[in-house]
Write a structure and sequence with these properties.
CATH superfamily of the largest domain: nicotinate phosphoribosyltransferase
Number of domains: 2
GO biological process, one term: NAD+ biosynthetic process via the salvage pathway
Number of strands: 19
Distance between the termini: 50 Å
GO molecular function: nicotinamide phosphoribosyltransferase activity; nicotinate phosphoribosyltransferase activity
CATH class of the largest domain: Alpha Beta
Shape: elongated
InterPro entries: Aldolase_TIM, N/Namide_PRibTrfase, NAPRTase_C, NAPRTase_N, Nic_PRibTrfase-Fam, Nic_PRibTrfase_pncB, Nicotinate_pribotase-like_C
Number of helices: 16
Protein name: Nicotinate phosphoribosyltransferase
Keywords: Glycosyltransferase, Ligase, Phosphoprotein, Pyridine nucleotide biosynthesis, Transferase
Largest sheet: 7 strands, antiparallel
Strand order of the largest sheet: 13-12-1-5-3-17-18
Length: about 450
């Protein structure tokens, strides 16, 4: 079986069709494409860039296999000349990008590809696929982190993710955004995302009594012991924990937490807290799961529910309130001439760009400027060189470094943007030089149209 995640054929047909047409027309000069988001989803105040590591890995390792080329040949879709050219295909271009975990806004490019036109065109599909998904999930996760106000968050979303890769990358993206870890075991092996897990209701049901189930699980998994107490009656389950806690302590086993997964979680958390405290189990924390999102988390905290952590599944890995971003990867320059799209509602700003961010005296973000590359503005430039001639310029940052960067970036947001309610948009200015370039490109387009 082929590795579908890195297979050269994991692309749209029109990318290969355009490659053939470019080659036949002799169009292989340097092209510049940029990836950006056109607008924020409703209710959102910011986005968090993620997926760069997988994007760079894709570019570094991109090459068709003999099987890929044989299939293309027998498919009849493409010319023999294209297939022969693809035998030596490698990505040889440059990439500039925002560091993973960077907060960004509409019209701000988070990645720029500079490469021969056929190469830059071909990589569009998979780059969007990788950057869009992890950015979507990291942005959703960041809202949950803000809503949780320091409480533990764990990704429980693998089973309802839209496929295996989505579940795996969601664990990575949510960890960058501040989640404590994931239930996904492979995410720990692949990325070092801490794995967490408790028990299922089926485990409790498999024993003749709840107490027997708790004791059996405690003996098998004595470290970081979390017991699921709502299989039958949540308050009775809490009393059962109080009853067996002394016996487990005598064995050297400490109950770390109980998990609530159904019912009125806010009210149940309060009653369970009372039962645990009265029974001498004040050190046992309460972890909640079951259909949660940032709005529910914020509601529980507002009502004073004594919940110490949350497991979030479907709403995280599907970004259920906003399952897609209005994003694009567009040609901004070709053969030294700035280019732009002028389609109604989808016009682009032309040329190679840089995003400059200003901060106030307290270290909070005060405004961004999108401008042409080489036009310094006040503040800090956000796009950095990360790949030249198809090779990374430095080793990838560790996931903990990306996580720290994201935490600092979100902490620097203006206070109004840190809430989960929609706020006044953050100020992003388009520079005079970029507007002038757009006017120049428009004149070029109009002149060209008249000549033809």
């Amino acid at each position: 079986m082929t590795d579908r995640q890195t297979n050269f054929l994991l692309t749209d047909l029109y990318q290969l069709a355009m490659m053939q047409a470019y080659n036949e027309a002799g169009e292989s000069a340097t092209a510049v494409f940029e990836f950006f988001v056109r607008k924020l989803p409703e209710g959102r105040n910011f986005l968090v860039a993620a997926g760069l590591e997988q994007a760079l890995s894709f570019l570094e390792n991109l090459r068709p296999s003999d099987d890929d080329l044989a299939w293309l040949d027998q498919s009849g879709h493409f010319s023999r000349e294209l297939i022969d050219q693809l035998r030596s295909f490698r990505f040889t271009g440059d990439v500039d990008a925002m560091v993973e975990g960077t907060v960004f806004f509409p019209d701000e490019p988070i990645l720029r590809v500079t490469a021969p036109l056929p190469q830059a065109q071909y990589v569009e599909t998979r780059l969007i696929n990788l950057l869009h998904f992890q950015t979507l999930i990291a942005s959703k996760a960041a809202r949950m982190v803000l809503a949780a106000e320091g409480r533990m968050l764990v990704d429980f979303g693998l089973r309802r993710a839209h496929g295996a890769e989505a579940g795996l990358l969601a664990a990575r993206a949510s960890y960058i955004a501040g989640f404590a870890g994931s239930a996904n075991v492979l995410a720990e092996r692949e990325f070092g995302v801490p794995a967490f897990g408790t028990m299922a209701h089926s485990f409790v049901q498999a024993f003749d009594s709840e107490a027997a189930a708790f004791e059996a699980f405690a003996k098998a998994r004595p470290e970081n012991l979390v017991l699921l107490i709502d299989t039958y009656d949540t308050e009775a389950g809490a009393r059962r924990v109080v009853e067996i806690a002394p016996k487990l302590r005598a064995m050297g086993i400490t109950i770390r937490a109980v998990r609530l997964d159904s019912g009125d979680l806010g009210a149940l958390a309060k009653s369970v807290r009372r039962i645990l405290d009265a029974g001498g189990c004040g050190e046992v924390t309460i972890f909640a799961s079951g259909g949660l999102d940032e709005t529910e988390i914020a509601r529980f905290l507002a009502m004073g529910a004594p919940i110490d952590g949350f497991g979030v599944g479907t709403s995280l890995t599907t970004s259920s309130d906003a399952p897609a971003l209005d994003c694009a990867y567009k040609l901004q320059e070709y053969a030294g001439q700035a280019r732009r799209k002028r389609s109604e509602g989808k016009a682009t700003w032309p040329g190679r760009k840089q995003v400059w961010r200003r901060f106030d005296d307290a270290g909070r973000m005060a405004g961004d400027t999108v401008t042409t590359k080489g036009d310094p503005q006040g503040g800090t430039p956000l796009l950095e060189p990360v790949m030249r001639a198809g090779q990374r310029l430095s080793p990838a940052p560790s996931l903990s470094e990306s996580r720290s960067h994201a935490a600092q970036a979100v902490a620097s947001l203006p206070q109004a943007l840190r809430g989960i309610e929609q706020a006044e948009p953050y100020k992003v200015e388009i520079s005079a030089s970029l507007r002038a370039l757009a006017d120049e490109v428009d004149r070029f387009i109009d002149r060209s149209a008249k000549r033809n």
